[in-house]
User: Fold these one by one.
Assistant:
Number 1:
Amino acid sequence: MQVTQEDGGRLNAFAKEPRMELIEQGTGTSASSRALLIGGALLVAVLLAVAAGIS
């Protein structure tokens, strides 16, 4: 962490940010990540339906 000293002797800490990674054009999402995304969306829809059914 980078720490700087402010007026009055206070310390201020900044988190170290990770390096950016560039994604090359043409690389799409894999089938497994797409299935995980669809499964998550279905899970959210089911949870919303259960919450609406309870209330």
Number 2:
Amino acid sequence: MIIGDWYLTLPSKLESLAPLSISYAAFLLAAFFLCRIFSARLRPLVLIIANCFFLYSFSFEHLKYALILSGIGYLLSLLIKRTHRKEILYLSILLYIGILSYLKLPALFQHDHLLPLGISFYTFKILSYLIDLFRNTTDGTYNPLYYFSYVLFFPCITAGPIHRFDGFYQVIRNTQTFDYKDAKNGGFRVILGIYEKIVFCDYIASVSEKAMSAELSGWNTLLGILLYSFAIYLDFDSYSNIALGSARLLGFRLEENFQTPYLAKSLKDFWRRWHISLSSFFRDYLYIPLGGNRKGKLIRYRNLLIVFAVSGIWHGFAWHYLLWGLLHGLLLIIEDVLFGKLLKKNSILLTLIGIPVTFTVVSFLWLPFRMENMAEVLAVLKRLSIAQNFSYEAIGMTLNEAYWLLAVTVIVILCDLLRYRRNLIEDYSRLYFPLRWIGYAVLVITFLIFGMYGGSFEASDFIYQFF
């Protein structure tokens, strides 16, 4: 090995700072202390070093791509700020879309380059910064420390949320005082995210996988379809909790990424609550510039289809992601045409009917998202039509595991019902001291029993880190 190439192989000797690892917890704690030890002037530099080390722990290639793409974005931002020419903005957008397409379509462009970690998320952050700069809706900054600490902010690098520059800038530029409540609630939210992923999400995902196997059909297949809805929601929500909790530990309050999406009474309502940062990105930077709903219904419906087609492709340059996006767009149009006026009414009956109907529709729409070709989707639907009673034994579960699955599902639903009206973390922080610590003890015990030792599965990677 060439002596100068040591930095290429060093990450393989280190443990990657995956959000579920002990090393990530230690890294986050170190970043927490360092961001408070140094002054406001030096904090951006400390955060940039932390961001780079986080990416470097996965591989030097991930760090290289992130620095190159964000560096190009910074140079383009200087050009846009000084010239304010729309041609530079358009070229910037085309450049980043082209790079994203090239890296996400290895078969089409005939290459085998690594797909950089979190590239879709930080690319959209760069684009939002450049567009806001051109629109004069953000002050922007000539200081590269603020820019790079924003783009490469490590809590959000893997799977979002896609936060905007202004709120981040207002925090990092000012002197930061220690806030015990922020630190406590941020740390608790990180713990809840890890708990949600390992204890709830991975167990539900493993049962869903077994229930949807080719040997089963009927009610077992239906169970697998419905459980996958819970699994993908818990997977993404758990990472969002870890990201938002990590950011809060560092002094940043980012916007929520979910608002009980499976309590939506319509598809339109669902997309106000699901992956909010991505939905708002497409609304502000694609839907509204295309004309939004200002030019009549036909143009509005066209814009909806474009947005959802792009949303599908963003998840991956494959037909099944495009189909998933287009189906959502088409059903939103049908919903608006048939039930648009009805859904504007605030009716308890409508809500009681709309919630299960919307959840069922969304659950079946996850099929093309999950499967890789139409043959697999049709095979699942065919097995669904074959009569077969539910059997936990056929799925490979014991009776106790079936009871635990029921308990987990009920807990998730109850928590979402409570979250619909309350901020549970804030409420929990106000509980009497002994009650809080009893709750902590229950979390630890159930984590050890059902998370670490309760099953034959291991904590899987987060689904959205591959988009």
